[in-house]
Amino acid sequence: MTIAGIRCTPKKIYYSIIVFKENDTFTLINQKLIIPVSFNIPDKLKYVRKTILDIFLEYNVIRAGIRVTENNAQSPDRFRLMLEAIVQELIASSYVEAYFTGLKGSISKRLDIPNDGTITEVIEGRSVFNGITDWSSFSTEHRESILVGFASSTL
Questions:
Q1: What pLDDT digit, counting tens, does each position of 15-35 carry?
Q2: Which structural domain, as residue segments, surrounds residue 111?
Q3: Which CATH number covers residue 35?
Q4: Which domain of life is it from (predicted)?
Q5: Which of 137, 149, 129 is nearest to 67 (CA)?
């Protein structure tokens, strides 16, 4: 089974591809998609949609998750919200069997990580997740994409 976890920022899309093997092990591929600055907004959205779809097809992704902006964000970036929306639309209209849009609380619930500050420690890299030894070396955005990917594996 292959799963994708996605975390958007206004300038980059962080994604993690998690390939589960038969013996309960997995391979983790972390990448980021840099959004061309020279494109206008519709072309940026088209670029992201097409490229993420190509990635899904290349890896044969059957489940996916996207980390979305928290509802109580003080000043959410409008372009990030557009990116999250276009990625959600892509996932919903693709061949992906099941998908998950995750806030911090829903991610922690699906992963059985307490939302008492423990999930924040995991996101910040102070606590290791799922035995991934180099967990703290990943960026916060990649850690979130990994977590939402694993959360979507529970669907």
A1: 999 999 988 899 999 999 999
A2: 2-152
A3: 3.30.420.10
A4: Bacteria
A5: 149
